[in-house]
Amino acid sequence: SEITMMLSVLGVCLYPLMPGPARVRLPLVSVGTALGVCACLLSGSRGSWLAGLLMGAMLVHHRWANRRVWVGLLAYAGAVFGLTWIPSVRERLEAAGVGLRAWLELGHVKTPVGVRLEAWRGSLQELFFEAPLFGQGYQGFKPALARLSEEGLVARGLTWVGHAHNEWIQVLVEHGLLGVLALLVLYLGVWSALRQGLEATGHAPQLQLALRLLGVGCVVYGLTDVLISNLATATFFCGISAWLALLIGESSHSES
User: Fold this and answer.
1) Once rounded to an integer, what is the mean pLDDT over residues 133-153?
2) Can you tell me the distance from the alpha carbon of 54 to that of 50, in angstroms, rounded to the nearest whole number?
3) Residue 256 or 97, more confident
4) How far is CA 32 from CA 4, 27, 51, 166, 222, in A?
5) Which of 1, 122, 128, 169 has a beta carbon 3.0–4.6 Å from 154's, enabling a disulfide?
6) In the prediction, which pLDDT does 182 show?
7) Among 12, 8, 26, which Cα is nearest to 206's?
8) What is the structure's pLDDT at 202?
9) What is the DSSP string of 150-207?
10) Measured over all CA atoms, what is the biggest interatomic distance in the chain, rounded to whole angstroms?
11) Confidence of residue 176 (pLDDT cuts 50, 70, 90)
12) Residue of 111, 227, 129, 215 whose CA lies nearest to 171
């Protein structure tokens, strides 16, 4: 769902740079975006919804970056509110609220939200301090959390949880502070390299926005799931970064 969401938003952003006549590009992008949004909504991934919500607001702000920007944002907010009345979306949102209250008031971990919050608590309060510099090791999160569960330091029954559902906590537990530093170097290094390339293109607005959208999408989605630790999403991040680099290079050559 996160790949579908990011491709849909980036497609809308980079529509003016796509080859071919507008009468061909517009229907393709419109249909592709509509299908992508439907797929993301039907996936039930609240992390993708949150990232998509912020990326969509950035698109609207960019499109109406003048005195009409509040009109665009209000219309966007109305559209988002309308989507919350879709039964499957509303059910997922209500389930998140129920799970949060159950964990806060009763320590209940029989919901997806409760499981994640309990795993985060155990990771930050226990696992991190066991090996703060180097972490528990590659793929060490699951056995370490299972050990905490068996020892009663987190709720019983969390032996099946395979990852932290949070990019930064996952890296912090498995690879320690050095791993978090390496992840920051990866993200900031890619952003810095593409940013330097943009300076040679006269700061093409669409490419600037696409770079910001990619960063926001990856970071926000990483708050509720893992990105770099997953082969599919890690490959997607590398592929999209390479694609943006090619577009920046083509834009630079065309202007020179």
Assistant:
1) 91
2) 6
3) 97
4) 10, 8, 18, 29, 24
5) 122
6) 93
7) 12
8) 59
9) HHTSS-TT-TT--S-SSHHHHHHHHHHHHHHHHHHHHHHHHHHHHHHHHHTTT--HHH
10) 65
11) very high
12) 227
By the 8 A CB rule, do 81 and 73 touch? Answer: no
Residue with tokens 């893992």: 226
Note whether 164 and 120 are within 8 A (CB): yes
Of 171, 188, 167, 189, whose CA–CA distance to 233 is shortest?
167
Reply yes or no on whether the pLDDT at 256 is more than 60: no
pLDDT, tens only, 45-83: 888 888 888 888 888 888 776 667 777 778 888 888 888
Nearest CA to 241 out of 205, 215, 206 is that of 215
Q: What is the pLDDT of residues 112-131, one digit of tens each?
A: 898 999 999 999 999 999 99
- Residue tagged 């607001």 (tokens): 57
64 exposed, middle or buried (CB, 10 Å; 0-12, 13-18, 19+)?
Answer: middle
| pLDDT of 203 higher than 60 | no
d(CA 48, CA 68): 28
Please give the single-letter amino acid code of residue 185: V
What gap in Å lies between CA 107 and CA 104, rounded to an integer?
Answer: 6
